[in-house]
Write a structure and sequence with these properties.
mainly beta, 2 helices, 3 domains, six-stranded mixed beta sheet, 355 residues, 32% strand, Immunoglobulin-like, Neuraminidase
Length: 355
């Protein structure tokens, strides 16, 4: 097996694997990996190689390709092996820094799950899935639980069932099933806390999509806190917001090829009269932080132009689908400058002299 390393960002390294033609003939599917905040740790394991399973792929000997690579001098070091070799599993970064690996395949589909602790480099067993599955998705939800959906139990045994993993108890519970059984689909956490599942296959390739509604449940410690916003919005003004926890606690979705993580805030304006909404883009120059947000200039509706309606509105900050408490603002038309009132000026008149 030929292995190459590509450094793509100062803090992280990605690995690309190029199996031999014989290994590719055994299993042509891509590998999966999870990236830690520690740039020295990346896991890519459980691959087919001429019919055998490998549970760890430690690598080293990386050639620097540019100045950043030379500065990092990236290298690979071995770490603890999975208890069970597997492929087509999911790996999800949890808020506590551990990684949940669930399901997969090493001949039959697997129900087992394991937790990796980057602090010790070791794995521990955790509760098993209720249904063995591979080719599923795993999505970290705003309440801290992990949603595993769909997949397959065999080559053509496609699944519609879904389960929730609770890191606090290490157990799985069944939740609402997909409307359509599917595998190799995507799952994306939306700002409204719903999960969009799209595509995949269950024999034929699918074009359908569906939404999983978590409800309002989330960990209060993850909720963004909005303390102050610009009270008045006029034509061309920016909205500024301040508070805390504007940056997400963790990535939004499971760490595999279907991953779609984000940690930036979405700021929404909601007009109270007609419920029109507007998501505000962040100002590229001022930017945002964990405690502040500045939008681009806002277009307000006037008698001659369209835009956000005049009147009272609510501002809400969403971080990884979790809404803050809202604040009131007033969108107002610009006040026209008063037209000066002409004033009479005294003029001198001559009076004839009396003779």
């Amino acid at each position: 097996m030929k292995i190459t390393i590509n450094v793509v960002y100062r803090a992280f390294a990605f690995a690309s694997f190029a199996p031999s033609p014989q290994a590719r003939a055994v299993d042509p599917r891509p590998l999966k990996s999870t990236i830690f905040l520690n740039p020295r740790v990346l896991m890519g394991f459980a691959v087919y190689a001429t019919g055998f399973f490998l549970s760890v792929a430690p690598m080293s000997g990386v050639a620097a390709e540019d100045d950043v690579a030379a500065e990092l001098s990236p290298s690979w070091v071995p770490t603890g092996s999975l208890f069970t070799a597997r492929t087509r599993h999911t790996a999800t970064l949890l808020p506590n820094g551990k990684v949940l690996v669930a399901g997969g395949n090493n001949g039959p589909a697997l129900s087992g799950a394991e937790l990796y602790d980057p602090a010790t480099g070791t794995w521990t067993a955790t509760g098993s899935l209720g249904t063995a599955r591979e080719r599923h998705t795993a999505t970290l939800l705003p309440n801290g639980k992990v949603l595993v959906a769909g997949g397959a139990i065999s080559l053509d045994g496609f699944l519609s069932s879904a389960e929730l993993y609770d890191p606090a108890s290490g157990t799985w519970t069944a939740t609402g099933s997909l409307l359509t059984a599917r595998s190799f689909h995507t799952a994306t956490l939306l700002p409204n806390c719903k999960v969009l599942v799209a595509g995949g296959n269950n024999g034929p390739v699918l074009s359908s999509a569906e939404l999983y509604d978590l409800g309002l449940g989330f960990d209060p410690g993850w909720q963004p806190l909005l303390t102050m916003v610009t009270p008045l919005i006029v034509q061309g003004s920016e909205l500024t917001a301040s508070g805390s926890r504007f940056q997400g606690i963790s990535e939004a979705s499971g760490g595999n090829v279907q991953n779609s993580s984000s940690n930036y805030p979405l700021v929404q304006l909601l007009n109270l009269a007609n419920e029109q909404t507007l998501l505000l883009p962040v100002d590229a120059m001022t930017g945002w932080s964990d405690s502040s947000f500045t939008s681009t200039p806002i277009t307000v509706m006037t008698t001659t132009s369209s835009g956000f309606p005049i009147g009272y509105a609510l501002v809400t900050v969403f971080t990884n689908g979790i809404p803050s408490q809202s604040q009131f603002v007033l969108a107002a038309a610009p006040t026209p400058s008063p037209t000066p009132t002409p004033t009479a000026t005294a003029t001198a008149t001559s009076t004839p002299r009396r003779q």
